[in-house]
Specification:
It is built from 21 helices and 16 strands. The chain is an alpha+beta fold. Strands 3-2-1-6-5-4 form a 6-stranded antiparallel β-sheet. A 5-stranded antiparallel β-sheet has the order 8-7-11-10-9, sandwiched between helices. A 5-stranded mixed β-sheet has the order 13-14-12-15-16, sandwiched between helices.
Length: 618
């Protein structure tokens, strides 16, 4: 009875089952006064019995049985009829009185001859099934050097020991399963707590960002809050790749190039474009800090990109959730700003239509309407007109303006301390910028430079014309400036078949009377006048290697004086006179007549506007 109590204590001590098995084996040998015993436990798949605990058996014997001579529980194996297998399958005690004479034990005899510690052979054995609550968990076997170990007293002790061992094993397994279940529940609970913490933090950020949106704190506040919470550098970019807002500070060019130009960054952007969802770029693939890229979508169209990168960027659920919340807030703010811009452009466009149509007749109304929108038309304004030429197989002008020209204009205007009266007219962007003083003129120059850089980079191989005119000081000047600029654009695009596409700047402010022609004359007539005057000279220059067009340009620019022309061209005055006579002969123009000089000057102006710049040495 004490042995049973010891086994129960061992089973309740929450120790590994192997220790319990060894205790049972040792107890069995002691109680039966036999040299060896073993606990043979059924495998999880029910295919065989394995020796899991033993006393008095050699390690070699245990290894060979478990590896080579497994105690099979299914038919087809030569060891299927072993005593232990029979005891397990029948649920009854099986006794071998003399192993050397038992025919069914023949397959085991060779290995049994050296089973005991010290190399001795056992003669008899008894296999007792270990059953509890109708389930057999294995077999308790004892080995004896004597003939027939199965005395009634021994069998009674083994049966009692086997029953209590089976019960202990069953309870231990139940406890193991319960422990595993508890561990899973604990792990699941911890996971739920972590997920809840992620949701709570994401919700806190979301509420903070939405407060910033509702309080009209602007994109800088929203992006800055996101960067602070994430501990990453966050960059909001427009669809052209221009950085709109950066926090905590602008990224280096190397950082931005890594994501915009690297294979990893390109693939992530492409995936995000297709899925309209956030994507992570691993530092292992980008050879730099990890990064997140999030497309911001309005009306099923990507309107901006949100990047977050840094050494602490990782593909964690927390960072993903936080960026998803940030993207929602930024998108709302972008929508609000876009709506405000659309309203501003519409109101500005209505005012501009009124100003260009009847600004002279109703100047006071125009001044009042402008004042309500925050514009002071009593100060000079400079016109900036931007046009992008579309091809026959290209997207239409409205789509091009919305996708490229408008973001480019917004980026160019950003940071300039100047208000612009702006609208779309005939497929071009029209802006009137205040230029009261030198600072205002500098703003205009900066705007033109930025436009040139941005549009030239994002619209390669396309005709882009930026025209400036002004300043407009009187109400009547606004319509005249627009008509001259629009005429210059039309003339510049009239015949581009011989010219490579690209970006061109035109300033029609200093053209004087010629600006009237640009605003009132048909483009075809101007092109025809230019060709009539200059084409024959161009052909002569190509054929003879001469410079008649250059000479004509310099002659007109010098006020029709021989000596200044010769000085400018580094030649003798007689050579200039000879060339001028050749020009008169080829063109049938008398350069001593004012009308002929006007025609030549106008042809040179048209040549400049169209971008041919024939023989332009400057």
């Amino acid at each position: 009875m004490q042995a049973v109590i010891d086994i129960a204590k061992e089973a309740g001590a929450d120790k590994p089952l192997e220790a319990l098995f060894d205790l049972v084996a040792a107890t069995a040998t002691r109680l039966t006064n036999t040299p060896a015993s073993a606990l043979q436990i059924a495998s999880a798949d029910g295919v065989c019995l394995r020796i899991e605990g033993h006393k008095g058996l050699s390690a070699e014997y245990v290894e060979r049985v478990n590896r080579e001579k497994m105690i099979a529980l299914e038919p087809g194996s030569p060891y299927y009829l072993s005593p232990s297998s029979q005891a397990y399958r029948s649920g009854s005690i099986v006794v071998v009185d003399d192993a050397s004479e038992d025919v069914e034990y023949t397959p085991w005899y060779e290995v049994a001859s050296s089973a005991l510690v010290g190399g001795a052979a056992y003669r008899s054995l008894a296999a007792v099934p270990m059953a509890a609550e109708g389930e057999i968990v294995g077999v308790l076997a004892v080995y004896s050097l004597e003939h027939s170990v199965a005395t009634p007293e021994v069998m009674a002790m083994l049966t009692l020991l086997a029953e209590h061992t089976a019960l202990a094993v069953t309870l231990a397994r139940v406890r193991t399963r319960e422990r595993a279940s508890l561990q899973k529940l604990t792990s699941a609970h911890a996971s739920l707590q972590r997920q809840q913490a992620v949701l709570d933090q994401a919700d806190d950020l979301h509420q903070g960002l939405m407060r910033a949106v509702l309080h009209d704190d602007g994109l800088a506040k929203i992006v800055g809050t996101t960067a602070s919470v994430l501990g990453l550098r966050v960059v909001l970019e427009d669809t052209l790749g221009n950085a709109l807002v950066c926090a905590p500070d602008p990224p280096s060019e190397d950082d931005r190039d890594r994501w915009h130009s690297s294979d990893a960054g390109i693939l992530a952007t492409r995936a995000a474009t297709e899925s309209r969802a956030i994507e992570y770029v691993s530092s292992r693939t980008a050879q730099g800090p990890g990064a997140w890229v999030t497309p911001l979508v309005l009306a099923e169209e990507i309107v901006a990109w949100l990047w977050a990168f840094g050494e602490d960027a990782d593909e964690s659920e927390l960072q993903r959730r936080l960026l998803e919340r940030a993207a929602m807030a930024v998108t709302v703010e972008l929508w609000r700003e876009q709506s405000a811009r659309e309203i501003e452009w519409r109101l500005s466009g209505d005012l501009l239509d009124h100003l260009l149509r009847d600004g002279i007749a109703d100047s006071q109304t125009a001044l009042t309407r402008a004042a309500h929108l925050g514009f002071d038309l009593s100060v000079p304004h400079t016109l900036v007109l931007v046009g992008v030429r579309t091809g026959a197989d290209d997207i239409d002008a409205a789509e091009l303006n919305r996708r490229v020209l408008l973001p480019g204009l917004e980026h160019a205007m950003r940071g300039l301390n100047v208000k612009a009266l702006q609208a779309w007219r005939e497929g071009a962007a029209v802006l009137f910028l205040s230029s009261r003083d030198a600072a205002g003129k500098d703003e205009v120059r900066t705007l033109v430079q930025r436009l040139g850089r941005d549009l030239g980079r994002h619209l390669p191989g396309r005709d882009i014309v930026v025209v400036t005119s002004g300043p407009c000081e009187d109400m009547s000047d606004y319509g005249d400036a627009y008509r001259s600029a629009a005429g210059a654009v039309s003339l510049a695009w009239s015949d581009r078949s011989e010219q490579a596409p690209g970006l061109r700047y035109l300033d029609v402010s200093g053209m004087g009377v010629y600006s009237v022609l640009l605003g009132t004359t048909r483009t075809a007539d101007l092109v025809r006048l230019r060709d009539t005057t200059l084409r024959s000279l161009e052909e002569h220059d190509r054929r003879k290697g001469a410079q008649l067009v250059v000479t004509l340009r310099e002659y007109l620019a010098s006020g029709c004086k021989i000596q200044p022309t010769a000085t400018s061209l580094f030649m003798h005055p007689n050579t200039v006179m000879y060339r001028l006579k050749t020009i008169e002969r080829i063109t049938n123009l008398d350069l001593h007549q004012p009308e002929a000089l006007l025609q030549a000057q106008l042809a040179i102006m048209i040549d400049d506007v169209t971008g041919r710049t024939s023989g332009n040495s400057s």
